[in-house]
Amino acid sequence: MTQTGAEHVEGTARHTDFDVILIGAGLTGIYQLIKLRETGLRVRCFEGGGGVGGTWYWNRYPGARLDSESYTYQYSFAEEMLAEWDWTQEFAGQPELETYFNRVVDQYDLRKDIQLNTPIDSMTFDEQSNNWTVTTRGGEQFTSHLVVTATGILSAPLYPDTPGLENYQGEVYHTATWPDTEVEFAGKKVIIFGTGATGVQLITEVAKQDVEKLTIFQRTANWAIPLRNHDLSADEMSNIRAGYQELFPWLRTTFSGFVHNWDPTPTTAYTPEELLARYELAWSRPGFAKWTGLPLDVGTDPEVNQGWCDFVAGKIRERVTDPKVADMLIPDHLYGTKRVPCESGYYESFNQDNVELISLQENPVLEYTATGVRTAQGDIDADMICFATGFYAFTGALDRIDITGQGGRKLKDEWEDGPVTFMGVQVDGFPNLLINGGPHGKGGHGNSTRCSEPVVEWTADLVKYIFDNNIARVEPDPEAQRRWTDHVYEVANGTLMSRTKSFFFGDNVPGKKRAYLAYVGALPAFVNDLQAMAADGYPDLIFTK
Ligand code: NA7
Description:
Largest sheet: 8 strands, mixed
Bound molecules: ligand NA7
Helix content: 25-40%
Number of strands: 20
Radius of gyration: 24 Å
Number of helices: 18
């Protein structure tokens, strides 16, 4: 079905199906739709999934849970929701988050503008009309003057490239496409690949499920820290709610939008005994108090970082009974140079007789067989293989769409050697395309909602400006784009992160050229720069009337 002939906005003389097409109904897309609708424009949101919530729709694997405090992750704009919604736990699980996002969608009556089960396969910019034609997987085509993408930074699942999976006869799951039905683990032989933030959560839950055998293939050990979750009582929740007036302004000032901000007091200010006490205090606290709440020089000075690594390694050794297994679980990269997973009993899983940890460095998997995997040291049978192997991060969701810009340029080709953007929101050669939640934006190094809300608001203001001023094309100044991309690398190269292989550099994808995919600068400065640009009339964007 092709929908045509919808009324166009007076004054624009553009006969498109919609003024704006929005792709994605995750946490960014939902708010983006609300803000776009406030402009009075004709907006349609296309969502590939069968429900809203993005990450919290797809990642429904056992143990899926926030590592940010629930109340810091919710929308700050949704006043009625803030007044009535009670979080049941300090760190909410997937079902609660999915319910939350559905509730927001209902509260704002968004469903009528969201078309579910509609992945977008391609989009092409027409240089004559300055409009986009968007084609869905089902073959429907729609035109719009602008496209806004909210496709998520971790939404294109990555599988190992080991051959033979088609031969395997057992159950296969990826955490990012986990089924909506109950998966039965009890009595089964289960293999899990991946020990990132997701694998750590999944392994902990599967180990509790009375499995016959759980085999974990680890490519790289990670520094996992105790989450320290707890149920929120009615009193706690009412105290939390009473603090919202101060909480959200405070979160706007922190480096990454987390409630835990880097401690400016350097470790050199402490005696060794005091420093140990400082580390123990951090360790006793929830979530990222043990990451972005640490003394700042843990994040910047390799020797200080190593001291913290030794402290955490000691904690792992205390919990894992077999010293050889403990050694395998202790990473050799500096702390925080990969995403730090939070855990709730992960290390104790490895003390169970039915749980085996295998290092892929020592014993690589050569192929899948009909009954399991063939490793360098022999075959292992399994009833089920679970992949917690991550994503084509930052660029993957946009790469899945065949995006053709000016002069037939393909976005995927432009980014072949690494993404090039202006502040993560626009790309030269792709006019009238606004990106929220792609590479080189602030998402990925912070509390996702806090990172996305200001960009949503900025994008909606820009969209309004474009229509109010009858602008035919908006595109970034190529010089501003070059300056931004240089800045992204400059900041990243100055961090310890650049020393470690991680998905932030695309290292998790075999054969992918190493390039920095996120933006590791401070959230408040990033937001200030965006807002200042808007206040100045967008000097870094080129408008064509
Ligand atoms: P991650 O953090 O990318 O973790 C994926 C894990 O899978 C990680 O341990 C990888 O090892 C491992 N991996 C990747 N490819 C393979 C292959 N081919 N074989 C074996 N193991 C592999 O993704 P997550 O889903 O855990 O977390 C993503 C985000 O979700 C996270 O930032 C949170 O915000 C929530 P590696 O370390 O690359 O060697």
